[in-house]
Amino acid sequence: MLFYPVKAETHEEMKNIIDKIGADPRSITWFEPKMNTRKIYAHGVDFRAAAFMKQELLTRGGDVVVHRNVIDGGIKECDIMLMGTSGELRALLLKMRAMDCWGLKELREELHKVLEAIDIKNWEYALPGGKTLCLGGRSLIMGILNVTQDSFYSASRIENENELISKAGKMLEDGADILDIGGESTRPGSVPVGAEDERKRLIPSIRALRREFPDAVISADTLKPEIALSAAEAGADIINDVGSDPAMGDAALKTGLPLIVTHTLPCPERSDVVGSVMSSLSERLKALREKGVKKLIADPGIGFGKYGNDNMKLLKSTGSLRSFGLPILVGHSRKRFLDIEDKGKKIAPEPEDRLSGTLAVSALLASSLGHVEIIRAHDVLENVRAVRTAEILAAQ
Fold first, then answer.
1. Annotation marks residue 376 as catalytic
2. Selecting from 3.20.20.20, 3.40.50.2300, 3.10.129.10, 3.40.109.10, what CATH number does the domain 123-395 have?
3. Which own/partner contact pairs does 280-287 have at CB distance under 8 Å and 24+ positions apart?
4. Catalytic residue of the set 38, 210, 335, 354
5. pLDDT in tens, 135-157
6. Domain boundaries of the chain, sorted by first residue
């Protein structure tokens, strides 16, 4: 069972959720006045538990969107969306403690977890050398450094150490909070790189960055646990896991470094992309936590195995990841989904055309789309300016 917050702030967004759950379309009249409350989604709830929670939350001023056949038992389970203030939802929790039938015990445990998680606003992760990664205030900018000639954006490719030092120095001068360096491309259709080839590219580069910029926060972008271990020895502060190898948890435990967990598995076409990503990430994070990994950062994996407008839907739903109680990183910079259509014409067919789209998304991510903690970008100066402006506007 997984509860997570969802976005439903307009008539169309509420209508889509009502249709998805299978509620009576006419019920939107009663739900719309409560759209400014917290909205928590759950999948596959027993119909009796759904009816119980609806009646109990209604008496407290909230409501629950349920399938139209819950009332007559014509459906055995359904998705639900709870709507209520924090006080109303916590009052429901107290009532749920009186009953364990119909899966209510598991439901109240998960609801309690998500209510606690979404109230977490700040994180402090200890890094090597006495540094601390503070997350939860302004959005941090992570600058992308690629020591591979296979990166999808040609301007990000770095050929030698001198160029690496020069680019990294400029990024730090422009306001980068983190330097993220990778030696293997993850673009669609890229050729996998062997561990030794990646090691030869990445490890000397991390050593060079650490030598030149001793106070910088350096992230190692890799999908191989053995490379993550070597990167930590070379001076990396963060492991940016862009794969799904369970052994990466062991590497995080051994090094003690924060681990960025990225959703990279393909989402079935025409699926509920938010539900799919939430379910997959939830399983991985649970396994990592059970293993003892505590310094975690969640990344929804924009551009990894997502179809059509799925990336846009996922960006609008970054707030759902708050149910994990973790800082959020989003990497959308110059990716293909930004090649949107306007008046029947694609407006950004090449990565070089996508700076404007990148900045638009970055500004929203720093303000109205969940205020994510880390934004991963190729163009540091431009993103810093866009993000800081959006944050100032949001604070007015």
1. yes
2. 3.20.20.20
3. 281/321, 281/324, 282/2, 282/324, 284/244, 285/261, 285/324, 285/326, 287/246, 287/249
4. 335
5. 998 999 999 999 987 778 777 88
6. 3-117, 123-395
